[in-house]
Amino acid sequence: MKTVAAYFDRKPIENEDEEEESQISSGNGNNSQGLVDNFKRNIGNAWNSLAYGKWRRKEDILEDCNSQIWLLGRCYLPEGQGSSYEENCPLFFQDYHSRIWLTYRRDFPPLIPTNKTTDCGWGCMIRSAQMLVAQALTILFCGRAYRRISKPNIEMLQTIIKLFEDKDEADLGLHRLMSIATSQTDEKAVGQWYSPSRSLALLRDAINNSEHHLLQNVQIYLSADNCVVTSEVEILSCGWTKAIILVVCVRLGTKKINECYKHHVKSVLSMESSIGLVGGKPKHSVYFVGFHGDYLFDLDPHFAQKYSNLDENDSKIWETFHCQKPTRMLVEEMDPSCAVGFLVKSQTEFNQLIQQLSDSGIIENQSNRALKRSKSSHEGNSLFSVIDERIPSELMLCEYETPNLADDEDELHGFEVV
Amino acid sequence: MSASGYIPSFKERKNLAERIRMVEDIKRQQPDKIPIIIERYEGERYLPLLDKCKYLVPNHITVAELMQIVRRRLQLHPDQAFFLLLNEKSIVSNSMTISQLYQMEQEQDGFLYMVYASQPTFG
């Protein structure tokens, strides 16, 4: 049996992961070394504010005033006044602004075993995955209707944000995730780039290891191969005493997103149980939360902010966890790799979700959960499939693990017989 | 790809006439098996290469079973994202048999072409 470490140790074939890294070397030595480190840190900070600063953020302009705006299962209509989303569709803006926004941070306590004090240039996928989980927790504990405008600093939301604080003690924070990643691989975990599936697996493991009271009745179900198995979801939910964050990793094409999936991506974001998508442009991860016409709204972590201890309870600090300017990108700019998230709290909600996904052709439904199976089940444009039981792999092993047919190789033109 | 090796695809290595002949020969010998080409997506940077690309698959096995077989050959951890793509679409019809898929998607030379890929990383 291989360890988890062995599987994830595979090196990427080309390594271009470190191009924007501002490494801070060890600073425990003498004074001059300390000065050098300070200098490097300042240069690093200057670079980060240049690369991920305010000026890079696109203007929030609304051109299309006629079509609906969707945000995580809620529909809004522009009012026709003003040019920004904030002015033109204030209800949408309040909803967007109320979501937890996690960004690059600098000057946080070092990420053990390195001396890195920032995730600028490498941590965006982790941040996007954290935002998806933060949204699920917000719905669970504050409700989907929570808006900052009515209760700007409710304690519950602050408790959720603290779970993601950049310090060793935070149960779902970068430090904890990096310590889990380090324990699972012999390679360096800090400073690496992450894929959607890997970053969500780290969050799943962090929830499993946590004793935090908010995390006792929630679990992440992660599908890494296009398939959700309902019996596995049931087991994980412990008879629906726990809420399930259902995350399905998908690949919607090779180089670019295939045209045939664009509609599905939008449909998913309009569903009641949607908690968004973790994905992005190639090499640039964001957390997708809604759409307007051909644009997808996202919460973009590529914005370097200074870390401040949340125990100080300064309202200015809490403000940095909410985005003031809706950012967006065209659906076709999306990288084809992403992870689709849903929150289900009960058997009824789960069955409804499957029915809804099946009706809209988003899934290939082979489960008995939905009353009606999808009509065109072999159409081939589904995002993923849902089945009730997984075929036991031992069974397949004895059936298809055929003897070595090396003798026949020539006759078979080098075919590998399965 | 980098200097470490551009690997020409099966179609680049064999011309159409050769490929058609291969399929004809193999179908004579193994009429109830489907000839499939499974290659790593050229932009894939995390999954290992398969040692072979030509497979003869019993026509009754399902897409889900084929995915399991390839996953096992590549020795993937259950958390490792893995997708088989055909014509720029992920194959998600778990219960569809290879023979049904072949009817719909076989190419002019008689092979069924698939690529496998995981998810790239983002920074």
TrEMBL record, chain A:
<keyword id="KW-0788">Thiol protease</keyword>
<dbReference type="Pfam" id="PF03416">
    <property type="entry name" value="Peptidase_C54"/>
</dbReference>
<comment type="function">
    <text>Cysteine protease that plays a key role in autophagy by mediating both proteolytic activation and delipidation of ATG8 family proteins.</text>
</comment>
<keyword id="KW-0813">Transport</keyword>
<dbReference type="InterPro" id="IPR038765">
    <property type="entry name" value="Papain-like_cys_pep_sf"/>
</dbReference>
<dbReference type="GO" id="GO:0034727">
    <property type="term" value="P:piecemeal microautophagy of the nucleus"/>
</dbReference>
<feature type="compositionally biased region" description="Low complexity">
    <location>
        <begin position="23"/>
        <end position="33"/>
    </location>
</feature>
<protein>
    <recommendedName>
        <fullName>Cysteine protease</fullName>
        <ecNumber>3.4.22.-</ecNumber>
    </recommendedName>
</protein>
<dbReference type="GO" id="GO:0000423">
    <property type="term" value="P:mitophagy"/>
</dbReference>
<dbReference type="GO" id="GO:0016485">
    <property type="term" value="P:protein processing"/>
</dbReference>
<dbReference type="GO" id="GO:0000045">
    <property type="term" value="P:autophagosome assembly"/>
</dbReference>
<keyword id="KW-0072">Autophagy</keyword>
<feature type="domain" description="Peptidase C54 catalytic">
    <location>
        <begin position="92"/>
        <end position="355"/>
    </location>
</feature>
<dbReference type="GO" id="GO:0005737">
    <property type="term" value="C:cytoplasm"/>
</dbReference>
<dbReference type="GO" id="GO:0019786">
    <property type="term" value="F:protein-phosphatidylethanolamide deconjugating activity"/>
</dbReference>
<keyword id="KW-0645">Protease</keyword>
<dbReference type="InterPro" id="IPR005078">
    <property type="entry name" value="Peptidase_C54"/>
</dbReference>
<keyword id="KW-0963">Cytoplasm</keyword>
<feature type="region of interest" description="Disordered">
    <location>
        <begin position="11"/>
        <end position="33"/>
    </location>
</feature>
<comment type="similarity">
    <text>Belongs to the peptidase C54 family.</text>
</comment>
<keyword id="KW-0653">Protein transport</keyword>
<keyword id="KW-0378">Hydrolase</keyword>
TrEMBL record, chain B:
<keyword id="KW-0968">Cytoplasmic vesicle</keyword>
<keyword id="KW-0472">Membrane</keyword>
<dbReference type="InterPro" id="IPR004241">
    <property type="entry name" value="Atg8-like"/>
</dbReference>
<dbReference type="GO" id="GO:0012505">
    <property type="term" value="C:endomembrane system"/>
</dbReference>
<dbReference type="Pfam" id="PF02991">
    <property type="entry name" value="ATG8"/>
</dbReference>
<protein>
    <submittedName>
        <fullName>Uncharacterized protein</fullName>
    </submittedName>
</protein>
<keyword id="KW-0963">Cytoplasm</keyword>
<dbReference type="GO" id="GO:0006950">
    <property type="term" value="P:response to stress"/>
</dbReference>
<dbReference type="GO" id="GO:0005776">
    <property type="term" value="C:autophagosome"/>
</dbReference>
<comment type="similarity">
    <text>Belongs to the ATG8 family.</text>
</comment>
<keyword id="KW-0449">Lipoprotein</keyword>
<dbReference type="GO" id="GO:0016236">
    <property type="term" value="P:macroautophagy"/>
</dbReference>
<dbReference type="InterPro" id="IPR029071">
    <property type="entry name" value="Ubiquitin-like_domsf"/>
</dbReference>
<feature type="lipid moiety-binding region" description="Phosphatidylserine amidated glycine; alternate">
    <location>
        <position position="123"/>
    </location>
</feature>
<keyword id="KW-0072">Autophagy</keyword>
<dbReference type="GO" id="GO:0031410">
    <property type="term" value="C:cytoplasmic vesicle"/>
</dbReference>
